[in-house]
Amino acid sequence: MAHAQPGIFALGTRSHHHLEFDATAGGPAVLSALATACGAADAVSGVNLVVGFGARLWSEIAPGEVPGDFGAFDPVEGPDGFVMPATQHDLWLWLHGAGPDAVFDVARSSAATLSAVATVAAEHPGFAYLSSQDLTGFEDGTENPPVPEAVTVATIPDGEPCAGGSVVLLQRWVHDLDRFGALPLEEREQVIGRTLQGSVELDEANQVPDSHVSRVVIEDANGEELQVFRRSSAFGGVVEHGLVFVAFSRDRARLDAMLERMAGGGDGIRDRLTRFSRPTTGAWYLAPPVELLTGRR
């Protein structure tokens, strides 16, 4: 049985740093450099390192371990010219821990270690805001299952390519907090579909079809919710700020469906939250299990 990278489920960390790379060398050289980076991160107490690969690089490294629907991120389009842009890269490192100093040091060290085989294409430092809240003030990750259940939700099942790994969606969303905050409380709650205090889902009488909850809760043919495991963080300063959205899943299909519904695909109903927050990046990564990442079976 393959084991998921433990950093995916390491909860309670306050500081985050995402690095995206474009590979300048072949897969074996990248894996070798990653082994050194992971070893250095392990030596720093309290810093978790999760590694994900874009489809092009992972197909070169392990062609028999690529899920059938896994590929590069394509733009997702909706009504009114709305677009979720594609900014796919080859490699993603997510570092998170208790404090920004140790996380920064490991992020900088990892980038230096990989510099001979990859260039940094984008980075997104982040932080936990209050008690697991988005900068809008609403609780983030309310739908997350507890960790014992999350392992099943977030990891590819046995018998499938890259079993024990995770399909990862990474996006950066920039919020317009001034516009959102100017709304009356009741309207802000209708945008999200939950109460600000207590994060209670609005009842059917008050839930509008374009609320965020209405658009991102995906169900199967039997009416069962198709869950994902979210590990998002806030980012930014006074001028620009928002959410680094990270979701882990056992398959890509449910995340694709979520993005299409948010954009208004199919029925033309666009997530009202996208009127106050815009995506600036979009990429798919595959976080392989420990055994494939290290070569230990």
Q: What is the CA–CA distance across the termini?
A: 9 Å
How is the CATH topology named? Alpha-Beta Plaits
Number of domains: 1
- Strand segment count: 12
- Principal-axes shape call: globular
Looking at this structure, what is the CATH superfamily?
Apc35880, domain 1
Can you give the mean pLDDT?
95
Strand content: 15-25%
Name of the CATH class? Alpha Beta
Roughly how many Å is the radius of gyration? 19 Å
The number of helical segments is 9
Uncertain parts: none
The secondary-structure element order is EHEHEEEHEHEHHHEEEHEEH
Largest sheet: 6 strands, antiparallel
Portion of residues within helices:
25-40%
Structural class: alpha+beta
CATH architecture: 2-Layer Sandwich
Blueprint of the fold:
Elements: E1 15-23, H1 27-42, E2 47-53, H2 55-61, E3 76-77, E4 83-84, E5 91-97, H3 100-114, E6 118-127, H4 147-154, E7 166-175, H5 177-181, H6 185-192, H7 212-216, E8 229-230, E9 233-236, E10 241-249, H8 253-263, E11 277-279, E12 283-287, H9 290-294
Antiparallel strand pairs: 1-5, 1-6, 2-5, 3-4, 7-10, 7-11, 7-12, 8-10, 9-10
Helix pairs in contact: 1-3
Annotation keywords:
297 residues; Alpha-Beta Plaits; six-stranded antiparallel beta sheet; 27% helix
Verbal overview:
By secondary structure, this protein is α+β, with helices and mostly antiparallel strands. The protein has a single domain (6-64, 79-294), classed as Apc35880, domain 1 (Alpha-Beta Plaits), CATH 3.30.70. It is built from 9 helices and 12 strands. It has helices at 27-42, 55-61, 100-114, 147-154, 177-181, 185-192, 212-216, 253-263, 290-294; strands at residues 15-23, 47-53, 76-77, 83-84, 91-97, 118-127, 166-175, 229-230, 233-236, 241-249, 277-279, 283-287. Strands 7, 8, 9, 10, 11 and 12 form a 6-stranded antiparallel sheet that branches. Helix 1 runs antiparallel to helix 3 (100-114). The protein is globular and about 55 Å long. The mean pLDDT is 95.
